[in-house]
Amino acid sequence: MNTTSPEYRLEGGGVDIRTLPKVSLHDHLDGGLRPQTIIELADDIELDLPTTDAGELGEWFAAQANSGSLVEYLKTFDVTTAVMQTREGLTRVAREFVQDLAADGVVHGEIRWAPEQHLARGLSLDDAVEAVQEGIEEGIDEVARGGAEISIGQLVTAMRHADRALEIAELAVRHRDRGAIGFDIAGAEAGFPAGRHRTAFDYLAGQFFPVTVHAGEADGLESIRGALVDGRALRLGHGVRLAEDITIERQDDENTYVSLGRIAQWVRDREIALETSPSSNLQTGAIAAWGEELVDHPFDLLYQLGFKVTVNTDNRLMSATTLTRELSLLADAFGYELGDLEAFQLNAAAAAFLPLDEREALAERIVTGFAG
Fold it and tell me: Which Pfam family name is an example for this entry (predicted)?
């Protein structure tokens, strides 16, 4: 991926969105590698790639991911995880990840990744987390030397189809004062409910350790219910199929009248943040029930109804995107103005897995930055 972002301006030639302070809550480490880095790391381990041209490789990832199926989309990670099996590879990828976020105007990022997928070349779970943290800290230091400031935390993730969730939860808590700020489960959603990992979620609750759960992407309301009830999720990864629990009763020229089901009502009333990723949601078919274009995404309905929507990239490599681009696409689709983009960032700041005083400081930084 090109680490320099083009300008994306609001309609009318306003401010360049890239320069605005942004918060990234849903961004996978193994979905944000630079193509050139993949090529160089693959050469070190003699891994065959579809192409050794960085531009063509980036296009290959985007084409493979644009399948309309989460299962097919996830297959692209076989390549990225293959080059992230050594301390050096993990550290480099994490360092560049932080640099790329900062270049896109991100001031706080939460990097999610599954350590259990990075043990093929002899690393332990703790080795892997420490390697990523080393890269994060190097990236933060390099960003600071360039005159900017960014905060980063790890969301330690368990794979929902595996049976290591408790072990990964214990790993996350073990590193809570050394970079880990939250826990997640990811992977194939349908058929693998959060309840499979109830023991892990019970442990995390007892440790007062925050949880986000992928739900409402490749499965519907029961998956979201499981994330909330079994997972005690404070945020929903994607969560877009929550819109299945919203009934449009009638519309007129000025208003849309809706009723909320119990799950949607709970999520809205409790201000549980939705970690939406517009381009990814199109690629994986998460919004297929509503259409195939971004304008069909239930994002705007959720926003207008007062849900705490946030905007994210999910996997920048696979979606050939940045947070700036995602905000620009939404602004074009729904006519959003600067104040709307600010609201999305304040929602994300409020939902960040940070202490209250740090979330308040982050919100102040966003308000100041948007005031220009």
Answer: A_deaminase
Distance CA 204, CA 167 (A): 11
Rg (CA), the chain: 19
Locate 164 and state its tokens: 């290591």
Q: Which residues are within 8 A (CB) of 276 and not within 5 positions of it... i.e. 6 or more apart?
A: 238, 239, 240, 297, 299, 302, 309, 310, 311, 312
Beta strand ranges found along the chain (DSSP E): 22-28, 106-113, 151-159, 180-186, 212-215, 235-238, 246-251, 256-260, 273-276, 309-311
What domains can be seen in the chain, in order of their start residue? 17-371 (3.20.20.140)
DSSP alpha helix (H) spans, 295-355 = 299-304, 323-334, 338-351
Measured CA to CA, the distance from residue 173 to residue 129 in angstroms comes to: 12
Q: What is the dihedral of CA 262, 268, 271, 276, to 10 degrees?
A: 110
What confidence tens digit (pLDDT) does each residue in 274-320 have?
Answer: 999 999 999 989 999 999 999 999 999 999 999 999 999 999 999 99
Note the pLDDT tens digit of each residue in 122-180: 999 999 999 999 999 999 999 999 999 999 999 999 999 999 999 999 999 999 999 99
Residues 71, 6: contact at Cβ < 8 Å? Answer: no
Q: How far apart are CA 294 and CA 334, in angstroms?
A: 9
**181 SS3 class:** strand
Report how far residue 163's alpha carbon sits from residue 181's, in angstroms, rounded to the nearest whole number: 22
**How far is the C-alpha of 2 from the C-alpha of 165, rounded, in Å?**
35
Of 216, 211, 263, 264, the closest CA to residue 238 belongs to 216
Quick check: 285 and 238 in contact, CB under 8 A?
no
Q: Rounded CA gap, 113 and 118, in Å? A: 10
- pLDDT tens digit string along 181-224? 999 999 989 999 999 999 999 999 999 999 999 999 999 999 99
> Which of 64, 52, 43, 146 lies closest to 98 in space, CA to CA?
146
Active site residue 326: no
Choice among 116, 130, 217, 275 that is catalytic? 217
Q: Give the predicted TM-score (pTM) of the model.
A: 0.95
